[in-house]
Amino acid sequence: MMVDHCVLPTATLGAARERLEALGFTVAPDARHPFGTANCCVFFEDGSYLEPLAVADRAAAQAAADADNTFVLRDRLFRLHSGEEGFSALVLRTQDAAADQARFVEQGISAGPPLSFSRPMVDRDGVRGEASFRLAFAAPDSPACFFFTCERVAMPATGARLSQGHDNGALGIAKVLAVAGERQDDAAFLARLFAGAGDVQDWALGDAVFSLLAPREARRLYGIETGGEKRLRLAGIVFRVRETAVLLQRLAVAKIAHTVHEGSIVVPPAPGQGAHFIFEEPAA
C-alpha cells in the first residue's frame, strides 16, 4: 500500500486556497464531485496530494447521504464531531478496491458501502477531462477519522499534467501522523487496515510512513499539542522540502506563525489548513 492523498475538510475552498497559497503551495482549480462536495487539490511530484474538501451543494450532499453514500456520511460525521476544519481521512492507493472492500468486511473494519464515481478534471493549463474512481472504506471506533482505498479506474491525459512545482520547495508527503491515548487498541485496527505491515507505531506506505503516536510523543518529537482525546485521530502531515531556509523566508514574509523543532519547521493548523504541517529536508 502507498499514500494516495490526505482529506482536509474546510468550511470554504476559498479559505483553503488562500492559506495554502500563502504557505507556498500551488493549488489546482476547484473541482466538484457528483455528490455535493468539492475540492481544490495540491499535487506533488511523487503522485500524492492534499484534498481540501468543502460542501458545495448541500441539497446534493443530503441526497447522497440519504442514498447511503459512505464518503458523504463520514465527512458529515467528522464535521459534527470535530468542526468544519481538520484532517478527516487518509487515502491509500490500490489496484483493486473491490478486493479491499471484501477484506474490510471480513475483518470487521468496513465503514460502509463502496463508492464508484466519475468527475471532471482540469489541469494547470485549463485542459479538461474526466476521471473515474472506485473507493472502499474502513474506520476505527471513532468519529474523528476514517480511511479508504482509491482505485484510479480511468485518468484522462490531463492527469499526467497535474503534478506541479511549489514555491515552498515541497516534493511530497513523507509521513502522516496520528495520535491516540489508547494506542494498543487502535494499533490493532491499523494492522488490519495496512494488512499487517509494520508494528504498533510505524507502518511503511510506499515512500511515506504512517506513525501512531501518544500525545506526549507528538509533543516530544514534533513540538505539537494534540489535545487529550483518547481515540485515534489524524493530526499532522510531514512534507519533504528541498531547502527549509527557503520556506522559513517565505513564512516570515507572509507572517505565518511557525516554530522550528529539532530542525523541522512546524506550522500549526489554521482555517483552510486542518492539520499540523511539518516540513523537513530529506536525509542526506
UniProtKB/TrEMBL annotation:
Q: What residue range is the signal peptide?
A: none
Q: Which InterPro entries match?
A: Glyas_Bleomycin-R_OHBP_Dase, Glyoxalase-like_dom
Domain Glyoxalase-like: start-end pairs: 3-193
UniProt protein name:
VOC family protein
Species per Swiss-Prot/TrEMBL record: Chelativorans intermedius
